[in-house]
Amino acid sequence: VEASIPEPQREAWKRNQTAAFKSSDEFEKEVVRHVETSLARSMFNCDEKAAYSATSLAFRDRLILDWNKTQQRQTYRDSKRVYYLSLEFLMGRALDNAMLNVGMKDTAKAGLADLGFRIEDIIGQEHDAALGNGGLGRLAACFLDSLASLDFPAWGYGLRYRYGIFKQEIIDGYQVEVPDYWLDFNPWEFPRHDVTVDVQFFGSVKKVTNEEGKSVAVWEGGEIVVAVAYDVPIPGYDTPTTNNLRLWSSKASGGEFDFQKFNSGDYESSVAEQQRAETISNVLYPNDNLERGKELRLKQQYFWVAASLYDIVRRFKKSKRAWREFPEQVAIQLNDTHPTLAIVELQRILIDVEGLEWDLAWEIVTGTSQFGYTNHTVLPEALEKWPVGLVQHLLPRHLQIIYDINLFFLQSVEKQFPDDRDILTRVSIIEESQPKMVRMAHLAIVGSHKVNGVAELHSDLIKTTIFKDFVEIYGPDRFTNVTNGITPRRWLHQANPRLSELIASKLGSHEFLKDLSQLNKLELLVQDKEFKKEWAEIKFANKVRLAKYIKETTGVNVNPSALFDVQVKRIHEYKRQQLNIFGVIHRYLTLKAMTPAERKKQLPRVSIFGGKAAPGYWMAKQIIHLINAVGSVVNNDEDIGDLLKVLFLEDYNVSKAEIICPASDISEHISTAGTEASGTSNMKFVLNGGLIIGTCDGANIEITREVGENNIFLFGNLAEDVEDLRHAHTYGSHTIDPDLAKVFEEIQKGTFGSVHDFSAMIAAVKDHGDYYLVSDDFHSYIETHKLVDEAYRDQEQWVVKSITAVARMGFFSSDRCIYEYADGIWNVEPLPRRD
Ligand code: GPW
């Protein structure tokens, strides 16, 4: 308030208000100004990187004007806000997205051309913002796009990692990790050196009696690390609403140095302390669907949660409302259990800092539409647990509060089920193991008013398996489903501009980008010859583009008329890239066994893989190695030629997905049934006119429901059969599918080299119980691929399937997800500009 300009001087401000560029001339002026001032360069010294920088700064300026107005409006209206807490935001590039969302790409294109640049080259200069591992982080990014596009007052909160997910290089067929230092020039963030929060760690808790004679806990000692806010503007599509993603960066509390130590000559240790503080936000943990229980990870979690909650509470307090109204002003969504400490931290703030009674505080914390928890996996190795001793050491006060929450919770369960001792052990927030562990999912359920899964099957599974007891305790209404979605702005309009324009020309406008159900009108055109032709041409052009990229990056020539078969996602045994590559080997052997005349009749295929393995995930790295080893044999086999090519594309990320998704004919979503919570790339591929081969898992099931069984290729055992099959592998006789056995023999013969390396992958199936059911599903997988080949031969029908599937994909927009969350979980309304 003190910083506000007095009334008499405001006229001068209004007169001098910054205006957003409207024409390509005005845009050029901005670019030149940034080149000449912000970058201190000139037309004699402006490469594509500089032109990218200046273009981005011009758009950033524009976004920030809308951002300011959005924030002012939200503050003035004092409406309820949504806070999306996520340790990962896999944003990808920002420039193209900003240009399209504000509707200025054509303007920029013309301006850049005038200044001597091609817009694609400029867009290509940007380094991906890769602050995430895979689906979970990309979902958060799609949700931010939808929240802004639909005018919801919403903030994202995350960490500003200095190093995002590592860059993957493939050397001699092996994955090598290279650090992703992405911050050397990032025009999309605003450092807010004035927005800081002191975050405490370690220390001890003392009980003292306050003035009112009440015993209160005081957490003292330990160390302070400072959180500094960096804000990233999130533009909505076709709306002035521009929301904020606030990322916290850690720094030492003594300012740059501990001056005491510095002056006493201990320069090194003062620098060391600074570095230790900065370590917290240094690096993204590169594990997907796996928790490794590292102390630094817990530090990251608390650092981010404490800073975010402090910020949220600070904003709430400005409105001078009573604490009881907190749940009416604030909805917090926990993206997985990573931010679960927020529940404990809010309780701590309310009782220790604000002096509320426990019961009232807990009522606020667990209030309707306060905390929501999204679960993204049922895999046991991904469920977070922290050793009690570690929590005690790092966050002594929080451990006390967790114990109290657990005590009251278990007391109520005991009342509810007086004759059931076992249920207490099963649901306790503390696992009575050696060492004792805090079960974060249990804490998240106890502290949230709603828990959701991310696809129907997944939401059913959590209710009947890992969280079964909690359904008994709280009733089924605490649990709900919100099937994932993707933003059609990035994944159709941006990634596949020609398809987006064709659709717009047929539907009469771009409205479908904000109301994806309108795609259904395309079904009326499935018999329109001209339309089908254009549709097929666009797919072909996208394949030519990918073929060019493959040539540039791998040196391999692929025939764009071949069937492009794609599997891109994190490498994981449950996602079964091993099933795919075994299938590829089977195809290779089948082709080799044919006469040249027979071979001539076969359909050419390109098998494309991409994805990162967690650096410590040895088996995943072996899978990558096998794919590359198969590629180097098959791609150089003259008997095979164009009939089969096998490629591993290095360093799969968001911007590469934008090239790959529009270019697939078929993509693979082949996880063992019951293991993939949802999957979201399945949606991206179908939305771009590719068909999919998949198991009855995650969102594949709902995609089938929407597009129809004729427009998808399903195979494999069902989730309900998995347990029995696993049991039979271990306790019964376990025979391997004969075709798969032949594949194994070939690998063991040394056809692909490295026999020793690949033996573990084979042993996992043959000797160690085939946990992921590779052998059980192999036959139907191969048979289904035959159906794919057959279907592809009928190009006419294939295009009909492609169009029909796209027409029925409306449900999978992340806009639909956001409306469901807003309605069923957050209880918030959009706040559009009313002028
Ligand atoms: F294990 N997911 C992910 F649940 O990408 F935390 N990383 C993760 O660490 C986890 C889940 C976690 C993915 C799911 O595997 C995928 O099925 C889902 O579509 C996606 O989260 C978004 O919900």
Descriptive keywords:
24 strands, 835 residues, 2 domains, alpha/beta, nine-stranded mixed β-sheet, Rossmann fold, 34 helices
Structure description:
By secondary structure, the protein is of the alpha/beta class. The chain has 2 domains: 78-93 and 128-482, Glycogen Phosphorylase B (Rossmann fold, 3-Layer(aba) Sandwich), CATH 3.40.50; 522-807, Rossmann fold (3-Layer(aba) Sandwich), CATH 3.40.50. 49% of the residues lie in helices and 15% in strands. It contains 34 helices and 24 strands. Strands 7-10-11-4-1-12-13-17-18 form a 9-stranded mixed sheet, with helices on both faces. Strands 21-20-19-22-23-24 form a 6-stranded parallel sheet, sandwiched between helices. β20 (605-610), α25 (618-634) and β21 form a beta-alpha-beta unit. α23 crosses α32. The protein is globular, with a radius of gyration of 28 Å. The mean pLDDT is 96.
- Quote the beta fraction: 15-25%
CATH topology of the largest domain: Rossmann fold
Bound small molecules, which ones? ligand GPW
CATH architecture annotation name of the largest domain: 3-Layer(aba) Sandwich
The first-level CATH class name of the largest domain: Alpha Beta
Largest β sheet strand count, sense and barrel closure: 9 strands, mixed
Low-pLDDT parts are none
CATH level-4 homologous superfamily of the largest domain: Glycogen Phosphorylase B
The total beta strand count reads 24
Task: Give the overall shape, derived from the CA principal axes.
Answer: globular
- First-residue to last-residue Cα separation: 26 Å
Helicity, as a percent range: 40-55%
The total domain count is: 2
